[in-house]
Specification:
- The protein is α+β, with helices and mostly antiparallel strands.
- It has a four-stranded antiparallel β-sheet.
- 40% of the residues lie in helices and 17% in strands.
- The structure holds ribavirin triphosphate and magnesium ion.
- The site of ribavirin triphosphate has 10 residues, from β4.
- The site of ribavirin triphosphate (RTP) has 10 residues, from β4.
């Protein structure tokens, strides 16, 4: 299992609000390198698959609606201790609780429209990266 990779999405709110460049800049300045990246959008089916773990949660339908509401940027990122360090960089799920200077503190609108996704384990980083990228789409 690789421990130096994570997977991220810049979510529809942040792409629509024009924050893609600033968010990527903050990610790269924090020491992550981009190993794969694309602008794309999620169908209802794909968003449901990606967030299948949250299927029983009360916010699931709203989350799928939100994640299909516009383009997203998906990326595989590399850095030592990538998963943990990236979650520190993005901050808490709820931007009101996200530490000062974190990506969600700066760019998120709400607990749902919270600007970015970050994998929560090395295992999920590998699964999520493969969900979006084939081998020849990565460097
Ligand atoms: P993510 O998976 O997107 O990196 O976010 P996370 O780990 O911080 O949060 P998680 O619990 O995995 O929730 C996934 C996404 O669902 C939306 N959400 N809405 N309305 C709500 O109470 C609520 N709670 C979560 C957010 O978009 C969250 O990032
Ligand atoms: Mg999560």
């Amino acid at each position: 299992m690789e421990t130096n990779k994570t997977f991220t999405m810049i979510k529809p709110d942040a792409v629509a609000n024009g924050h893609t460049g600033a968010i990527l800049d903050q990610i790269i300045k924090a020491g992550f390198s981009v190993k794969a990246m694309k602008l794309t959008s999620l169908s209802t089916e794909k968003a449901g698959q990606f967030y299948a773990i949250h299927k029983e949660r009360p916010f699931f339908n709203d989350l799928v609606k939100f994640m299909t509401s516009g383009p997203i940027v998906a990326a595989i990122l590399e850095k030592e201790n990538a998963v943990e360090d990236f979650r520190k960089l993005i901050g808490a799920t709820d931007p009101k609780k996200a530490e000062e200077g974190t990506i969600r503190n700066k760019f998120a609108e709400s607990i749902e429209a919270n600007a970015v996704h970050g994998s929560d384990s090395d295992e999920n980083a590998a699964i999520e990266g493969s969900f979006f990228f084939s081998a020849f789409e990565r460097v």
